[in-house]
Amino acid sequence: MINKIASLSAIFRQASSFSVRLMASYPRPLHPGGFSLPPMVEDLIPITTTTPAAHNDSQAKEGMLRKDLLVVRPPDMESLWEWYAYTKRQTDSDPSWGRIWPTALSLARFTLQSLNTVDKEYTAYNVDLTSKFEEQEQALVKQAIRALQTTSHIIELGCGLGVAGLTFAISAESMNIKRTVTFLDREPYALHCVMASAAINKVATAPISSEKEGSNTQTLITARSSIDDWTSSDKNVSYKDLLLDGLGCDNDQTLILASDILYEPSSIDSLATKLRNLLHPSDGGYVFITDPEKERTPGCRNSLVESVKEMGGKVVILPLPQPKAMDKSILVESDVDIDGNLAKTVLIVVHLKGT
């Protein structure tokens, strides 16, 4: 294990000199921790991926596309757990939200590339759809990517540190479409980090409110958040709770992003219902979920597929490329899973119809 991590660290050190210099000053301490707030740092996470060959965005250079994301987070899960113990908050505490997981990084990269993909380039993150999937499956993935580009309201479910939703927020502003990105998690400290990250990335923030914002605002992307638990009866957010009316957006559709949420077999049916209840009641919509290739809990993925199909939905599961197959400058420490190996991730694309 130690040898694996050492060799991977060597790969990280071989990244471009600019990236090394830029990241050398991170993470930066923000708060030492106290009774009301765990220790916090500000980190810089380069979200880098390959770009479609015909892409003309100014960020694309030599086949690469990059967005630098500032993230407010605990120094590590161990520090967070120690803080939970020190403040006697161990009951139902889960420090896993304090880490950027490889699946979240994969979803962020997929989001960045999808927002910069045009009709003829729907290759689903370098996956060859033509040779591996049926025509109907290809169409579903292409339609889902198109929906990601045009849907007005993005939801990151079980967001943790919100890496995928924040990447969407800082990447979509150039598309000149008014949108909201809503972050949902059962952990209030995670949401505190997400909204702080939004602010330092210069993304506007606002509460989920029944007060009409008005359609004449110049703000294109607005980040919002809410406590949410799909296994709870009183904290289970649904579409109507998002209060999307009167926000001045092009449409009231929602699209869901999520990563590493398939870990409790008993909650999979509730999760499938949750997905349906967050999508537009009459129009339905699309969901992107990234999951470790080797499941955290075996059987959860098949259970989700069965639950979605029982609801009349469709599912396509496709592998995302391993980081080692990419340019080495893409790699960051979050590409390493808890077993010390470069992570392998699959993308689950779901479509659910409206009622």
Can you put this structure into words, describing what you see?
This protein is an alpha/beta fold. Helices cover about 30% and strands about 20% of the residues. The protein is built from ten helices and eleven strands. It has an eight-stranded mixed β-sheet with strand order 6-7-5-4-8-9-11-10, with helices on both faces. Strand 8, helix 9 and strand 9 (about 285-290) form a beta-alpha-beta unit. The model is unreliable at about 10-20 and about 55-60 (pLDDT under 50).
Radius of gyration: 19 Å
Averaged pLDDT: 85
* Main pleated-sheet profile: 8 strands, mixed
- The coarse overall form would be globular
* Record field, number of beta strands: 11
Q: Which regions contain 5 or more consecutive residues with pLDDT less than 50?
A: 11-18, 54-61
Helix segment tally: 10
What proportion strand?
15-25%
Proportion in helices: 25-40%
Tell me the strand order in the biggest sheet.
6-7-5-4-8-9-11-10
Secondary-structure element order, as H and E?
Answer: HHEEEHHHHEHEHEEEHEHEE
Q: Report, as a whole number of angstroms, the end-to-end distance.
A: 50 Å
Structural class: alpha/beta
Set down the secondary structure blueprint.
Elements: H1 2-13, H2 17-23, E1 28-31, E2 40-50, E3 64-73, H3 77-86, H4 102-115, H5 129-132, H6 135-150, E4 153-157, H7 163-172, E5 179-185, H8 188-200, E6 204-205, E7 221-227, E8 254-259, H9 268-278, E9 285-292, H10 300-310, E10 314-319, E11 345-352
Parallel strand pairs: 4-5, 4-8, 5-7, 6-7, 8-9
Antiparallel strand pairs: 1-2, 2-3, 9-11, 10-11
Helix pairs in contact: 4-7, 9-10
